[in-house]
């Protein structure tokens, strides 16, 4: 294994492959002025007692204020708040200028239109390398129906807005692209060829159909990002494919094959074979897009922050 030229940057990029939400952490200084910074290092810790954590860099100008404050609030941003996230991620004399914030029940600033907020008392500060972990005891919270803003590989993404672009129709087919160690699971298509694990979407919707499809394969995997949406006009179908990283398990049927075009020769559906060929190339490059179109032609929408050839 070759060592990266910049190990610190490589480690940050590796951490960035974990999809997170985006938060703005707020508090008040000794004079009662609001302070805040953007963070995706948020996690729930305990239900009893109710604890959560965020992290702050020791190089932050707000470090002393947050580590000595009585408490802080975590504001989980909604999909339309990318600009707000950027405001609190950049140096500014007054990040709260023009923002109609309110004091939470425990006193920390709560931002408007967020997906959820948690107003916390500072429970503990844990020094951890070049950061400090702020453990907060949740004093009050509220969740709203607003979908959350996502963060992946250094860029924002809007999962619910993306899902809303998926066309609907009377006959929807969902496919699971189960990837593991440079391979993908293919199964018998019933016509002497191979295909991806697929299922028709029922009344419970795409999410439930995908979860049941993955469970039926015998493979442990999590539903992953949207990868392809295309119409099969001749069959009157909509096909939706999701990349689903597999972690363990033996296939109940079919087998994993190398993620190379040569492995897809027996995939009888031309549209699926073309999609798998694209997946092989994008996997090799480490960059992915989302295909929209029909079984013959369409376009690939680049995932934010990534480039494809």
Number of helices, counting only DSSP H or I runs of 4 residues or more: 6
Largest sheet geometry: 10 strands, mixed
Taking all Cα atoms into account, the compactness measure Rg is 23 Å
Query: For this structure, what is the CATH class of the largest domain?
Result: Mainly Beta
Count of β-strands = 22
Name given to the CATH architecture of the largest domain: Roll
Mean pLDDT equals 86
Portion of residues within helices: 10-25%
Keywords: Oxidoreductase
Protein name: Flavin reductase family protein
Organism: Paragemmobacter amnigenus
Domain Flavin reductase like: 15-158
Descriptive report:
- InterPro entries: Flavin_Rdtase-like_dom, NADH-dep_flavin_reductase, Split_barrel_FMN-bd.
- The protein folds into 2 domains: 7-157, Electron Transport, Fmn-binding Protein, Chain A (Pnp Oxidase, Chain A), CATH 2.30.110; 168-302, Nucleoside Triphosphate Pyrophosphohydrolase (Alpha-Beta Complex), CATH 3.90.79.
- A hairpin with a 3-residue loop joins strand 21 (289-294) and strand 22 (298-302).
- The protein has 309 residues and is α+β, with helices and mostly antiparallel strands.
- Strands 13, 14, 15, 16, 17, 18, 19, 20, 21 and 22 form a 10-stranded mixed β-sheet that branches. Strands 3-2-6-9-10-5-4 form a 7-stranded antiparallel β-sheet.
- The protein is built from 6 helices and 22 strands.
- The longest helix has 16 residues, at 270-285.
Task: List its traits.
309 residues, alpha+beta, Pnp Oxidase, Chain A, 2 domains, 10-stranded mixed sheet, 7-stranded antiparallel sheet, 6 helices, disordered C terminus
């Amino acid at each position: 294994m070759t060592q990266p030229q910049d190990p610190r940057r490589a480690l940050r990029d590796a951490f960035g492959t974990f999809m997170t939400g985006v938060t703005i952490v707020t508090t008040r200084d000794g004079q009662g002025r609001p302070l805040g910074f953007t963070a995706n290092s948020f996690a729930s810790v305990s239900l009893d007692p109710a604890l959560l954590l965020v992290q702050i860099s020791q190089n932050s100008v707000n470090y002393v204020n947050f580590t000595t404050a009585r408490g802080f609030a975590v504001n989980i941003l909604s999909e339309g708040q990318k600009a707000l996230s950027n405001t609190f991620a950049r140096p500014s004399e007054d990040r709260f200028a023009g923002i109609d914030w309110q004091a939470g029940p425990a006193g920390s600033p709560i931002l408007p239109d967020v997906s959820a907020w948690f107003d916390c008392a500072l429970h503990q500060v844990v020094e951890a390398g070049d950061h400090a972990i702020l453990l907060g005891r949740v004093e009050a919270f509220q969740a709203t129906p607003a979908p959350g803003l996502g963060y992946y590989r250094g860029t924002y993404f809007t999962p619910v807005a993306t899902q809303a672009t998926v066309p609907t129709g009377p006959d929807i087919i969902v496919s699971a692209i189960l990837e593991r160690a440079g391979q993908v699971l293919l199964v018998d298509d019933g016509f002497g060829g191979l295909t991806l694990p697929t299922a028709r979407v029922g009344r419970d919707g795409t999410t439930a159909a995908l979860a049941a499809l993955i469970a039926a394969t015998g493979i442990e995997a999590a539903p992953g990002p949207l990868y392809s949406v295309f119409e099969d006009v001749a069959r009157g179908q909509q096909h939706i494919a999701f990349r689903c990283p597999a972690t363990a398990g033996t296939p109940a049927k079919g087998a994993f094959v190398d993620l190379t075009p040569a492995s897809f020769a027996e995939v009888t559906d031309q549209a699926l074979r073309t999609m798998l060929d694209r997946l092989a190339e994008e996997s090799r490059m480490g960059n992915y897009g989302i295909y929209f179109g029909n079984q013959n032609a369409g376009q690939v929408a680049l995932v934010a922050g990534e480039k494809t050839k």
